Structures are given as structure tokens and as C-alpha cells.
Amino acid sequence: MVPVRDRAGTPYEVTLELRVDGRSFGVVGERCGYSLATLARRVADARAGGSPVARAWPDPADRFPEPAAATAPGASEDHCFGTREPELFAFRRRDRADTPGTAELRCTLRTSYAWLSAPDHHGGEWRLSRRAVVEAWGPEGHGVRAVLTSAELADLLTTLVVEARLVGADYRDVLTSSPVSARHAPSGAIIDC
To answer: What domain of life does the UniProt record list for this protein's source (predicted)?
Structure first.
């Protein structure tokens, strides 16, 4: 976490410094803490029993907030199931001199389908599962990927929000009455593969 400070030196937001195997992998997400806290709240709400997402996805590992509909012209859509891999977040480096693709951290929601045959081999049903795919790309074009359940994504987001609080950026207004708490210990790294 890199604090973003106002003119008086008070932290009010954060930027993420990505590290892989102890090496700097890039700096992304200028002033992204509020977005992370909002997503943490949305994931917690989606995972809660009795939520609309819980009714649609009985397996708690599959419960993610529904992303905004893709509105970009030419967006790839599967007409039966919506967008193929909608983004939950995408943070990039934001310096004027940055070339396209310089350091990126993104999280997409991937739905996979498996056909489960009936015991008598007559008929069956589709089993759908959802996972968050978190990818980080460094300036040399090397990347790392993690596939997370909704509980693992919730833990990652909670850790990031707690680390933001430790450097002085607080998002209590976003997290009020949320299951996200400060009881998690800081990880010491954003991404350390």
C-alpha cells in the first residue's frame, strides 16, 4: 500500500505496489482504495445467505456480486448467460509516459459449465461454477494469475482494506454494517507469489 496524501500530508487514499518474489512488479490503481472497499462490501453482501445472489448460486464459493452490464460497443456476450468474463476491477498504471499495458491488476469473473450425466445416461444437467480470476501484469509483459472462490476474494479484499487503514486511508463510511472487519492481520504484500 502506498498512501496518497493531501497537501497537508494526511493520507486519504491508496495506490497498490505489486510485488512478486520480493521484486517490484509495478504500481497500479491510483486512488483505488474506495473502489476496493466498495467491492469488498459488494462481495460480502453477495455471500450473505438469503441474498439474491445466494438464491441464484447455492454454492457459497460461486457467490460474487453481479458486475455492471457490458455497455461497450461490440462487447462479447453469450446471449444465454450475459458477458463472458466481466471485470470486477481493473487497475493500471496512470503516468503520462506509460505505454499501453504497463503494469496492470485486474479481476474478471469467469463462469464455467460442466455437463453432469444422469445415472441412467438419459439426460442430465449443466453444473455452473464461478470464480474470480485475478491477474497481474508487469512492465516487461510477464504475468501471474490466481483463481479465487468468493471467500478467497473476500479475504483478499478485506486484507487490502485493512492495509489501507494501517497506512491512514479509512473507508468506514463504505463498510458501515458490513461483515468486513479489521480483525484480519495485514499480509505484508499485495501480491506475493
So the answer is: Bacteria
Of 187, 128, 158, nearest in space to 42 by CA: 158
Instruction: Output the 3-class SS for the chain.
Output: CEEEECCCCCEEEEEEEEEECCEEEEEECCCCHHHHHHHHHHHHHHHCCCCHHHHHCCCHHHCCCCCCCCCCCCCCEECCCEECCCEEEEEECCCCCCCCCCCEEEEEEEEEEEEEECCCCCCEEEEEEEEEEEEEECCCCCEEEEEECHHHHHHHHHHHHHHHHHCCCCCHHHHCCCCCCCCCCCCCCCCCC
Comparing 185 with 34, the larger pLDDT belongs to 34
Give mean pLDDT, residues 80-95.
Answer: 74
Q: Flag whether the pTM goes above 0.90.
A: no
Q: What are the distances in angstroms from CA 189 to CA 18, 109, 130, 155, 193?
A: 8, 23, 26, 14, 10
